[in-house]
UniProtKB/TrEMBL annotation:
Gene Ontology biological process: 5-phosphoribose 1-diphosphate biosynthetic process; purine nucleotide biosynthetic process
One term under GO cellular component: cytoplasm
Main function: Seems to play a negative regulatory role in 5-phosphoribose 1-diphosphate synthesis.
Name of this protein: Phosphoribosyl pyrophosphate synthase-associated protein 2
Record has Nucleus as a keyword: no
Entry-linked SMART domains: Pribosyltran_N
Molecular-function GO terms, alphabetical: ATP binding; magnesium ion binding; ribose phosphate diphosphokinase activity
Residue ranges occupied by any Ribose-phosphate pyrophosphokinase N-terminal domain in the UniProt entry: 21-138
Pfam families: Pribosyl_synth, Pribosyltran_N
Keyword Nucleotide-binding attributed: no
Matches recorded under InterPro entries: Pribosyltran_N (IPR029099), PRTase-like (IPR029057), Rib-P_diPkinase (IPR005946)
Membrane spanning residue stretches: none
UniProt KW keywords: Nucleotide biosynthesis
Length: 369
């Protein structure tokens, strides 16, 4: 039985907490809940800081206690106003740096702009820009969770710990879905097949992959390879030279690779934001005979009309973690359930502060997980 066992040694933390300060950088009250949970698990009080918007929408941060020579952990969850959230974090990091903090560790469970980590046609790699800004502001270490692409860690020139939420989601499946042995793990596109395979192997379940849905924003058509346009005869190319053109993709009809008839279908992914692809996958699975459909994701952004669409859909339950606050969405849609991941974040903070190895938090995690 795969369970989560993380021992938080409060006595160790209490002995060393003189050199530890935990701040939450959010001016939004609903976003400070995760910070309170982490501080409670560690047996420390949240640091005193004021974060607010002035009348002209400028962000102001005022630290109200000494951080000189201390390990400062800044917990920042991403609210609806993403850009304000980023500025709050950068200003607070810089304020701690100029106040002579020994180490400044960012705890950012959901890394914003993580989907903009590849070059688009005449676009930019925004997550690289954001990483550079954080390092320049004074961040010395980053704790995050389930990056959209693991390669984002390479954008930083500081240590990055990319924690995993899958143990908590696996535990939820085992404890909250009574007949999960009759389930099949579903990837809603071939791109998420690796994650589905990881879940299926750990739960000893089958896997199904939906193939042929509409192309998403990360298809080859928008990754910059078609810029400039592929035209055979242009003046810059020698008349005797013909560059072979790539054959355009043709979307096949929707097919499900794997048997879902008479089974519980559990769709897994890292982010659930625009729910259209999840709704289409749920409809397809219903047509193929799945009698119950769950969606499990680490980050529940659930923007726009997502709660209403989920409530009206064939999806029975959406399970996300509290890396992003979504209390309002839960009020709009009772199908949304939350798994608390403050335990692993607090243990990561304790280990970093005490100079202990982080490998315990990454046990049984392979290169493809």
């Amino acid at each position: 039985c795969f369970c989560v066992h993380l021992a938080i040694h409060v006595t160790d933390m209490s002995a060393a907490k003189g050199g530890l300060v935990i701040f939450t950088a959010n001016s939004n009250p609903s976003s400070r809940e995760l910070g309170r949970r982490i501080a409670e698990r560690l047996g420390v009080e949240l640091g005193k800081v004021q974060v607010y918007q002035e009348a002209n929408r400028e962000t102001r941060v005022q630290i109200e206690e000494s951080v000189r020579g201390k390990d400062v952990f800044i917990i920042q969850t991403i609210s609806k106003d993403v850009n304000t959230t980023i500025m709050e974090l950068l200003i607070m990091v810089y304020a701690c740096r100029t106040s002579c903090a020994r180490n400044i560790i960012g705890v950012i469970p959901y890394f914003p702009y993580s989907k903009q980590c590849k070059m688009r046609k005449r676009g930019s790699i925004v997550s690289k820009l954001l990483a550079s800004m954080m390092c320049k502001a004074g961040l010395t270490h980053l704790i995050t969770m389930d990056l959209h692409q693991k390669e984002i860690q390479g954008f930083f020139n500081i240590p990055v710990d990319n924690l995993r939420a899958s143990p908590f989601l696996l535990q939820y499946i085992q404890e909250e879905i009574p007949d999960y042995r009759n389930a099949v793990i579903v990837a809603k596109s071939p791109a998420s097949a690796k994650r589905a395979q990881s879940f299926a192997e750990r739960l000893r379940l089958g896997i199904a992959v939906i193939h042929g849905e509409a192309q998403d924003a990360e298809s080859d058509l928008v990754d910059g390879r078609h810029s400039p346009p592929t035209v055979k005869n242009i003046g810059a190319i020698h008349p005797s030279l013909e560059i072979p053109l790539l054959i355009p993709k043709e979307k096949p009809p929707i097919t499900v690779v794997g048997d879902v008839g008479g089974r519980i279908a559990i769709i897994v992914d890292d982010i659930i934001d625009d729910v259209d692809s999840f709704l289409a996958a749920a409809e397809t699975l219903k047509e193929r005979g799945a009698y119950k459909i769950f969606v499990m994701a680490t980050h529940g952004i659930l923007s726009s009309d997502a709660p209403r669409l989920i409530e009206e859909s064939a999806i029975d339950e959406v399970v996300v973690t509290n890396t992003i606050p979504h209390e309002i969405q839960k009020l709009q849609c009772p199908k949304i359930k939350t798994v608390d991941i403050s335990m692993i974040l607090s243990e990561a903070i304790r280990r970093i502060h005490n100079g202990e190895s982080m490998s315990y938090l990454f046990r049984n995690i392979g290169m493809d997980d």
